[in-house]
Amino acid sequence: MTNQLYLIAFIPPNPLRDKIQQLKLEVKEKFNSSHSLNSPPHITLLNPFRIAENMEDKLESLLKDFAREFEPFKIQLNDFSTFPPRVVFIDVKKSESLNVIQQKLEQAARSKPDMFSYNYQQREYHPHITLAFKDLTKSNFYKAWDEFEGREFDEDFIADRFHLLKHNGEKWLPIKDFQLQK
Fold it and tell me: Rounded to two decimals, what is the model's pTM?
């Protein structure tokens, strides 16, 4: 059985998701960076990991139980920022609720090496929604940042579910969502 690539994230609801998707399309058109279009707008909770496809049901059961431990909460999106020299993103205001769910999810992944291939270095969590990365050239990064640095973006949504996404070889597709239910 082959190992499949998965990701766990919050995906904003519509119409906010469509608004962010339009920004990604703008980046593609103006700055020739389309890689972020390979996934829906999202805030990563658990970086990509591999598990055997026959473990997917077990993973879904674990995530369903995990989601029951948390109450829905507000996520605030505030303006734009960068990870120079390749990434432009919508910044997410840090919150205790978001940090706690991310840390506990990462702890769960690290505690189950039989299920998760999760061996990333531990580092500070910086929630964001990527608009451009990977295929954004350095020169276009600076042009894009000139465009986005002064722009305002002030939106929020209630995070009442997180999503399991699976990579199909070309893009990330949401395959299941898990309702926060505490």
Answer: 0.95
